[in-house]
Amino acid sequence: MPLEISLSTLVQIVIWGLINGCIYVLLASGLNLIFGVMKVVNFAHGEFMILGGYVSYWVSIYAGLNPYFSIFVSIGVIGIVGVLTERVCFRRVLGTSKLNEIVLSLGLIYVLQNAMSVLWTDKERQISSPFEFITVHFEIININMRLDLLIVIGVTVLIMAGFYILIKRTKIGRAIRATSQNRSAAMLMGINVEYMDMFSFGLGTALAATAGTLLAILFPALYPQAGAMPALKAFTIIVLGGLGSTIGAIVGGLAYGLAESSAIAILGGTWRDAIAFAILILVLVIRPTGLFGEKEA
Amino acid sequence: MKKRTQLILAVAIIAIIAVSIAAYYYLTVPPERTIKIGLVASLTGPGSAEGADMQRAAILAVEEINAAGGVYVSEYGRNLTVTLEIGDDKTKPADGVIAVEELIKSKNVDVLVGGLSSSVTLASQVPAIDNNVPFVITGASTPQVTRRTDKNTSYMFHYCTIIDDYSETIVKFLNHTVRPTLIDEGRMDPERNLRLAMLVRNDAYGIGCYDTTVRFINDLGLPIEIVEYQKFEPGATDFTTQLTLIQAAKPDAVYHAGLTAESSNLVKQGLQNVGLKTIYIAVEVCQTPQFYEILGSWGDYQILESKFGSKAASYSDAVDTYIANYMQRWKDAQGNPIIPGMMGADTYDAIYLICKAIENAGTLDKAKIRDEIENIEMDQMLIMMKNGMIWFDQNHEIDPISFIEQMTWNSTTSQLTTYIVYPDSLKQRDFELPPDYENEYS
Amino acid sequence: MLEVDGVSASYGNVQILWNVSLNVKEGEIVTILGPNGAGKTTLVKTILGLLHPNSGSIKFFDKRIDKLPTYKIVDIGIVLVPEGREIFPKMTVYENLLLGAYTNAAEKNKDQSLETIFQIFPVLKERRKQLAQTLSGGEQQMLAIARGLMSKPKLLIMDEPSLGLAPMLVQKIFNSMREINEKGVTILLVEQNVHRALEIADRGYLLEAGKMVLSGDWNELLANEHVKKAYLGL
Amino acid sequence: MKTISNLRINLKVPRVYLPVLLLATCLPIPLFGFSSFFVFVLTVTFFNISYSSSWNLLAYSGQASFGHAAFLGIGGYTTAIFTIRTSIPWLGLLLGAMASAFAGILVGLTCVKLREWFLALVTLGFSIILVAFTRELDWLTGGVHGLAVPSLLPSVNHYYYGMLALTVFSIFIIYLILKSKTGLAFAAIRENELEAKATGIDVVKYKLLAFTISAFLAGLIGAFYAHFMAYINDQIYGLDYSFLPIIISVIGGIGTIEGPIIGSALLRFISEFLRIIEPWALKIDPVVILIYDKIEPLVMGVILVAVIILMPKGISPWLRKYLMPKR
After folding, report:
1. Is A129 inside any structural domain?
2. What is the pTM of this model?
3. What is residue B151's DSSP assignment?
4. Interface predicted TM-score (ipTM) of this complex, two decimals
5. Residue numbers in A near D117 (CB within 8 A)
6. By the CB < 8 Å criterion, does D44 face chain B?
């Protein structure tokens, strides 16, 4: 069956892969930023994503705001939630032991997931977009595409460009990179590294919030448990793409989106979740530090 | 010294809680004998929409029965009231077992009713089997619940359409109605088979739907072929890749088997994201308010197999009364009436039939109740039966009529309504192809 | 300007410094000598607030700084060029230098500082667009010193700047140190290389096993028997 | 011989009386005519204790598995498949434990060189991959239909004693290991792997050993649990089962014998307390039933976060200070 796939089908599968990839890029970039600066793996990252989706959902319903603009509200709210989480939870266990940090994020998964369930039940929701009924036709490959798909890709590109500029071109971006490359040297430069922790955590969760909003516009994927798996996959992506590498997270996210949709197409839906981990284990068996990871001193 | 006080306090609190928990289990004796019916439903997890409907229907049935004076049980020489105990299986097997254990052993129920997801029910029925508690299963569609061979299922009854029924009705409808319509409208070569694609939930229910479809097509020798078969994981929200592959196979119709949220979303995504403009056929599990709500105008012209038409124009007086009572009793947070679903209708019937059986038995002895359920004969209620009577066959299954509804979008009320288009005996309207329907002639 | 008074410090349960005192006056080059593991690096870390003392006080221009976080200490004008250089490997030379001018005061003068620094270390100007990790060891050391100078420090502390460098480069770096001092920057130099350190220093301290055992002018130290025996091999 | 002499020494120590007291309380419970649901619930608690203990042993060697459910499930599926096909009772338990131990060696081999978070991901990934295989290999595992597991024992009271025995057995084994040289090596590796290597400890060997024993115990417990629940499907590999022992052990006290007991007891307290007040809660607002089951994990999550922040070593050291006189 996969052998006789026509061009338009192939193109469509690639597009689904890229669109899912966009979500993974946003999620992985945020996770990567937090890991780079704090050397903490926040397994609860996906819950911030879903929380961000909920914020946009309620804002678009109660304030009647276009969901693409409610992303900004979501970024702000989740950014602050992220900052508070760092301040109240992560800062206190930072450096005590890796296990504590990992289990703390596990605890946050439980708290956030179930708090969302208690507040909004497990019902699956989808943010309705004003462009819901508009489709665009591409003559050359003869496919119809929902306009929202194109907008989502566009928004992701814009946000990632903004993120890239912030990291590469601004003073605070430099400070963030300095902190992630050499924490004690960064302190000696006069950088307040605790502030950088807070800022990167907030920025990382804000990126997750945009991922959550875009996801909820495309799919009815807004329910409290929906974030757990994507966050784990995002982590495998940054392991493969090189912990701390901004480009690695982008390329890895897109590549993984493609891998996942091809896995569904070729192997079947059962393998959707398994494929990420299969790749991860294979890679780690060969290179215990990750595909592009560096040996630690 | 202060810390020691803290500790003593903590230990004291823990001890008090421990003692009270133990005492609770030790001392709880029911104050007065009532008929205790235990409802097993998924109130949380992926099956919560259907579970909530079962709960509402069960409460309604119990309230009606009690309002009418309860059930006369000759052993007690008086009418007993019915109390409903609810156990949440959380749509997970292990939690289902715990819920049923609790209903049987802690709440001391006389009879069980409910059970939604097939795989959950296969697990949660085990304590009922082991403790010889009659269990009228109203949700799980796998025939295994009464036909499994590893356990004695003599206390299990299946008041529900089974997967075989879904598929039988659907393939017959495809052959009897859809294929001729396509040929009449010049949409397909009369010489070729009808091209059917299937997209099912990767669990006992979904895969069962596929297996039985294949079986019926072969057994009945129908000119239908399955051109694409895709699965999705329970709880999935993104069906685009599977739908794209289905689109590539150029089907005339898509038969999809999922729970409410999955099915409605996959139809929406097929039309909206993928642009697969075809006929989508859902099965009766989706007969819930949420299904219509999510679909909205995307549901226009789409198909639902069912045996309880909550939105269809009146086809049975009992159903009309039930819908009116239900909507009177249940309103959502905004005060709008909630529309009943199919699983609730099953459960509602089942509670009446259980009470009838208890009345016949004249006792609350579980074995006697079981015998009376096995031999029950009463008029059909909400679910229409092939011979108009409720009775169980040798497999402890019923023989219901299921039908096909087509949805239409009413843009003035912004609501979906449905009409029965198959079988002819119940037909309210003719089946129509969607205006933007696309397929290949040859 | 810097007064360290009776400082004790420890890592976890292990005490490293015992009642250490020293002072540095404006315009001086002061050196702290001592063998490996004497606690020199711990001492500078304590001054910079990377480690907080158990007891004793550290004053800078008569203000207590021993409870301040590192970034505030940097802000008031103490800069450390750390041992092992500790540059940011995946950033360009230019970005590294900009980070040196991170504090607000330094940022205002960053163009002027850059000019001065490129005068002292012309090689950095050539390589300013390269990633720092591609520089040679000596160039990295220069970058570390230059980066320290970017923040217009009042006091520049250098921890083992000559470690692992070829003698030629060491000479170059010590020359630049004098140049920096002449531009009005006070220098506290931590060194194992007693000879060279005392060549440029006004005064020196000798730290052994976490205790200050000796202090004095460069000529006094050079004349000391213990120093002669243990460090100069005479 | 060594074990016996160990025992005799320990009898002199007061701390031995607490476990004995605990055991003495647990033994007669089914005889006292408690509702059999209470017995059932306690059996589940014993399962929690023993399963968490097996995880805790692995954590004691510095390796935190995030997919421990893999071992539970392998044990369960092995015994289910074996018992269904051959109708030989009991042997499946051992086979399940051995299959799981074998899987433990395999996973351990992949994991010995990995950092904490990689290890967490690989173990988690292993259980997720198992889900896919279980669903696909339906000729063997029953696929999505799951398997009905034949009963080993006639009643819940029997299972109660079975699970209790298994729990005592696991804890005793773990106790012996922790008191032995092996336990010392585990602790050394956890504290500092490089230093441990430097002092001549064969790190790879001991890490693998920890994986094997832990997986063996988890497999054994999973096998018995499958018979107890009488049904198994791929949800046994789910995140719920993987995270359960982590939560219990961390709250109770990671790397301690009593940690899982304390954690499980706390979980049970909360759970039963909520179950008992449920009717009252529903009287106040019937809508509560839709979210009621989320309150328990929410409370556990909050406790977990609070414990990590406020007492990173768990409740156990705090209790120990008062309850267990120092030797």
Report:
1. yes
2. 0.88
3. S
4. 0.85
5. 41, 98, 102, 235
6. yes
